[in-house]
Input
Amino acid sequence: MIDMANKIIYPLDNGGIAIIHPTNDLPFEEICRKDVPANKPYKIVDESVIPTDRTFRNAWEMDFSNPDGYGIGADAWFAEQAAKEQA
Output
C-alpha cells in the first residue's frame, strides 16, 4: 500500500522539478521506474517538502546528487512487463 503522503520528484530538462502523485495501481517502486523518464534520477519525498505556494514553484530546487533511484521510462517498463509475461 502506498503512503499517499509520499510523492516522487525528478528534475526536468528546463530546470524545474516534476511531481508524481502515485496511486495504488502498482507497487511504489514500479511507479518510480515506469513514470520517471529513462535515466532521470528521482527522490521519494513527503508531500510536506513540496511548496504549497505555486507562485514561486519554478524557483524550487532539490539536490538529486544522491537519488533514491533512476527511472527507466514507460516504453522500457512496458517492454519489460511484456517480456515477463512471455517467459
